[in-house]
């Protein structure tokens, strides 16, 4: 999809009028030329300019100014409105997409489209309308040239047509280069994210820092080399187009008079003046080419992102049935396989059988890479199983019911994100919030005002405590915790197992916890189920109550 096609699809109401005014601007520009040429003819004849030519100039000049003001104002409003609608639509599609689809598309592609590519469209907005106006001007001036001399008209069509054809052929190869450059820049964005998200790990390991930096430098070098080739090709196109315009002028001045007696005296002066208008406009169009090509690439990437998001199972908010209770969740022969987009490493679990009932506390243990976190994502409904069934109270969890199933669950994964605001959660009662902040020892660290935390500048353990508070405020019957205690100090780990969990169980919560805290599990004095995973399978399952 080209930039113009995107604008035509997204613009509501103003496009016909905008095109009309752009055409009017081009016509008024051509009329200014005609008035000037008429005045020049009168001056050559030793006469004062006629009232008709003066009136034509003044009217055309007024229309030209009004057209320019309307075009610039309307284009700004319409393009920014289009960009707003695109961003809102993309964000809406993102929030309704599935985790696998987002993982497959990649964070850099999504951020690049929503922020970077839409900014490119803004830069190209005025270029597009003025380009349309320039084309209209060239059309009418070309007709005027045909009126002055058919030979000059034929030369103009021949030279300009050849330049346009050569430009179009070269643009197709440049478009491929621009897409490759965008891919390399997305890869560079991923490396920059690695630097920022893994800054502590990078500073602790100089070898990792050097290797990551070398990878980032290579991504930047690849993007730079591709952009050098594409931009050099674009500039060559610009120079070639400009050269074609000068060749046209030279042909009209030096060649055309030899084949046409009509091109003599004032006729060649008028024709040359008209062509100077064409050349000036053509230069403006040529200079707009890189911006419009970049906009075309941005429009294509936005369109591809939309297509990729729409290809996933998208749910609508109005179709969600909120669930507040359940009798049992069961997995039967569930298998799931996932291939990481960047590392190409394969993760697989299954076949798995698992049952969860209200009020249960389940601990899942196992070594790194055993499939615990992947299992938790499948249980949460974030990863649909490749085979087998997940049932809720005997009913299969399908694409149509998965969103409702997920309303039962609150989760804190290892890569959790802590929001500053309580999005989607009613303002809690002050007494309840103060009790939770006191229980998790955060009263002196942060506070909630108008649904927003005063600060998130907390330690890793404190952030996880705050995340757990937010999960408890959701008041959902099932809580999933993935290595929640990994950032807690020994004192708070003990508090979690001996105070927090028993309190939650007495309140009727259903909890699944991934943990390595074997020491604390041995001291538990509440009923629980222990399951151990290895290589994507449950290899041990037993009930436990110690203490």
Care to describe what's here?
The chain is α/β, with parallel strands linked by helices and 547 residues long. The chain has two domains: 3-310, ABC transporter transmembrane region fold; 319-544, Rossmann fold. The protein has helices spanning 3-10, 15-44, 51-95, 99-105, 107-148, 150-197, 199-204, 206-259, 266-310, 372-379, 402-406, 430-439, 460-474, 490-506, 518-521; strands at 329-339, 346-356, 361-366, 387-392, 395-396, 409-412, 448-449, 452-453, 478-482, 510-514, 528-534, 537-544. The protein has a six-stranded mixed β-sheet, sandwiched between helices. It has a four-stranded antiparallel β-sheet with strand order 2-1-4-5, with helices on one face. Helix 5 (107-148) packs antiparallel against helix 6 and helix 6 runs parallel beside helix 9 (266-310). It is elongated, with a radius of gyration of 34 Å. The relative contact order is 0.08.
Secondary-structure topology with pairs:
Elements: H1 3-10, H2 15-44, H3 51-95, H4 99-105, H5 107-148, H6 150-197, H7 199-204, H8 206-259, H9 266-310, E1 329-339, E2 346-356, E3 361-366, H10 372-379, E4 387-392, E5 395-396, H11 402-406, E6 409-412, H12 430-439, E7 448-449, E8 452-453, H13 460-474, E9 478-482, H14 490-506, E10 510-514, H15 518-521, E11 528-534, E12 537-544
Parallel strand pairs: 3-10, 3-11, 6-9, 9-10
Antiparallel strand pairs: 1-2, 1-4, 4-5, 7-8, 11-12
């Amino acid at each position: 999809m080209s930039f113009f096609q995107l604008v035509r699809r997204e613009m509501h109401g103003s496009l016909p009028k905008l095109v009309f005014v752009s055409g009017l601007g081009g016509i008024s520009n051509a009329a200014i030329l005609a008035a000037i040429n008429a005045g020049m003819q009168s001056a050559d004849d030793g006469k004062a300019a006629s009232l008709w030519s003066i009136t034509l100039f003044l009217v055309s000049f007024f229309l030209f100014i009004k057209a320019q003001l309307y075009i610039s104002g309307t284009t700004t409003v319409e393009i920014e409105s289009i960009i707003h609608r695109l961003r809102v639509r993309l964000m809406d599609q993102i929030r309704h997409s599935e985790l696998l689809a987002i993982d497959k598309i990649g964070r850099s592609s999504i951020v690049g489209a929503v922020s970077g590519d839409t900014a490119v469209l803004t830069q190209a907005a005025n270029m597009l309308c003025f380009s349309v106006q320039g084309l209209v001007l060239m059309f009418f001036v070309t007709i005027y040239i045909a009126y002055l001399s058919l030979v000059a008209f034929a030369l103009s069509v021949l030279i300009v047509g050849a330049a346009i054809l050569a430009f179009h052929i070269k643009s197709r190869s440049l478009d491929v280069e621009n897409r490759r450059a965008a891919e390399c820049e997305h890869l560079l964005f991923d490396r920059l994210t690695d630097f920022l998200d893994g800054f502590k790990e990078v500073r602790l390991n100089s070898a990792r820092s050097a290797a990551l930096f070398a990878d980032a430098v290579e991504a930047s070098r690849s993007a730079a080399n591709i952009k050098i080739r594409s931009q050099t090709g674009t500039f060559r196109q610009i120079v070639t187009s400009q050269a074609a315009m000068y060749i046209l002028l030279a042909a009209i001045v030096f060649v055309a008079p030899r084949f046409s007696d009509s091109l003599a005296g004032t006729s060649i002066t008028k024709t040359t003046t008209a062509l100077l208008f064409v050349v000036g406009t053509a230069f403006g169009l040529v200079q707009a080419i890189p911006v419009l090509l970049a906009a075309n690439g941005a429009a294509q990437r936005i369109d591809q992102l939309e297509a990729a998001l729409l290809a996933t199972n998208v749910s609508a908010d109005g179709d969600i049935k909120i669930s507040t209770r359940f009798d049992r969740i069961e997995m039967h022969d569930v298998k799931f396989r996932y291939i990481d987009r960047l590392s190409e490493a394969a993760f697989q679990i299954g076949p798995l059988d698992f049952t969860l009932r209200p009020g249960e506390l389940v601990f899942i243990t196992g070594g790194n890479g055993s499939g615990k976190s992947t299992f938790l994502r499948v249980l949460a409904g974030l990863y649909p199983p490749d085979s087998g069934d997940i049932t809720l109270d005997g009913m299969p969890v399908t694409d149509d019911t998965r969103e409702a199933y997920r309303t039962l669950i609150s989760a804190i994964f290892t890569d959790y994100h802590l929001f500053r605001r309580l999005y989607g959660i009613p303002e809690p009662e002050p007494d309840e919030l103060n009790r939770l902040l006191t229980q998790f020892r955060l009263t002196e660290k942060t506070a909630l005002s108008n649904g927003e935390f005063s600060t998130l500048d907390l330690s890793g353990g404190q952030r996880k405590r705050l995340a757990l508070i937010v999960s408890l405020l959701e008041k959902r019957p099932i809580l999933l915790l993935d290595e929640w205690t990994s950032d807690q100090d020994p004192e708070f780990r003990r508090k979690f197992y001996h105070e927090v969990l028993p309190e939650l169980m007495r309140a009727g919560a259903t909890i699944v916890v991934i943990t390595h805290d074997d020491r604390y599990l041995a001291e538990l004095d509440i009923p629980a189920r222990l399951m151990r995973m290895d290589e994507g399978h449950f290899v041990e399952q037993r009930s436990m109550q110690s203490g």
